[in-house]
UniProtKB/TrEMBL annotation:
It comes from Marmota monax. One of its GO terms (biological process) is nervous system development. InterPro entries: 6-blade_b-propeller_TolB-like, Cueball_EGF_LRP_Nidogen, EGF, Growth_fac_rcpt_cys_sf, LDLR_classB_rpt. Residues 76-113, 377-414 form the EGF-like domain. It comes from the Eukaryota. This is EGF-like domain-containing protein. LDL-receptor class B repeats lie at residues 159-201, 202-244, 245-287, 288-329, 510-552. It holds the Pfam family FXa_inhibition. Residues 483-496 have a biased composition (Polar residues).
Amino acid sequence: VINVDGTERRTLLEDKLPHIFGFTLLGDFIYWTDWQRRSIERVHKVKASRDVIIDQLPDLMGLKAVNVAKVIGTNPCAEGNGGCSHLCFFTPRATKCGCPIGLELLSDMRTCIVPEAFLVFTSRAAIHRISLETNNNDVAIPLAGVKEASALDFDVSNNHIYWTDVSLKTISRAFMNGSSVEHVIEFGLDYPEGMAVDWMGKNLYWADTGTNRIEVARLDGQFRQVLVWRDLDNPRSLALDPTKGYIYWTEWGGKPRIVRAFMDGTNGMTLVDKVGRANDLTIDYADQRLYWTDLDTNMIESSNMLGQDRVVIADDLPHPFGLTQYSDYIYWTDWNLHSIERADKTSGRNRTLIQGHLDFVMDILVFHSSRQDGLNDCMHNNGQCGQLCLAIPGGHRCGCASHYTLDPSSRNCSPPSAFLLFSQKCAISRMIPDDQRSPDLILPLHGLRNVKAIDYDPLDKFIYWVDGRQNIKRAKDDGTQPFVLTSPGQSQNLSPDRQPHDLSIDIYSRMLFWTCEATNTINVHRLDGDAMGVVLRGERDRPRAIAVNAERG
């Protein structure tokens, strides 16, 4: 026991306390739970007399004493919430007001408001926000599972923030208060460093420098399509102008450049080719200007939307990296100065330090509804498209997930009828032979480990595979309806020592045949999951590859 100022420390008990866990105070007694003694006990806080309240209780954990009839003392927060609109915190020196995440405190230090605009930036394993209106700076958004966030964007209509994680190789989203974190894209990514939200078509675009592709999907990750994969050289930053129907990106390859194309990936053209490693491409929608940082020249530049009328905004910067624009200002991060600064967007003058002491800020943006304004065809009933509505100048085109094709109506999509499936260690991919319109695509199948064999049921459209844990599994090509057909020890009709090597489907009898080297057997399962048993058994044959000629029996 000790006084609150640290004086008069003394010991009440010191024996027979093998494993105290729960601890609480009620009246003149201290109560606790003990894991090893399996008891709830108490001791008088002055006399040190000890009693066992109850024993022989397994798994004792927390303990809390409650006295609803007696409330001792008060503080200023108890009356009128201390004058605070939302949260009241009483400290020894003063009462302080606070706001929930997403609100900001006014200069009266009592009232919380919804901010008109605020900065959001990535900093390694965290995403932060900074007020543009008050002194409430650098608040971390409580996001779970962020490891190395890179690109950022948002969907203001749903209050969502999106980010890429180059370490986890994922694209994720959450509400701006940090809740409901979910992976939107988690397969087939290598180094996703550029990303942009199409707030009109409700699509998500990203550039992957590892796969050397620009792709698109719905905001929830559905209907993923590879847009651009030829004539790309290390694509980096992305920006969208869905009102006009254009996508812009930068490339960091042997010949760095800034490129424009329709948002369906067609009609690509180079806008700027005499440039270094252009980063964080940003659009001023009101004045129709492009802005970017150049990591080789350490400048911030601007041009019109055709890459012409090129202007240097700032050229005395140690290491500019992230960049965004809002109202009359540009905001940028500097890796050498560890800062976020602001300046006039046309002249670069009136430089102001927004925040210092920041390390490796990868991306920065301003969250405000004016950054996502305008109209296009895709805003109304998805442009009558079954999957993707992709804006183009003067209209839109319907698009399909990779390997799917538009039907004659040019609105709905049909799945591929002929394709190749191939497995790698932890992935199953699909490709269309002799189709130059789309490359191979990793399928979103969870939990793949050392995939050894695959087959496909064209009737029910399931993929079947054997993994390194001796399981035979199946799922749809979009990852839905996963099912374990057989696993070690699951069936009494089959040996627990079996090691499936290859499999083949009889689509007519709805049977799956598979070989096992360990037991020298060929086995059969019904596709509904029932194990039928052994078809053939040998002594030294060690069967491996298998094929079923279902038409001839």
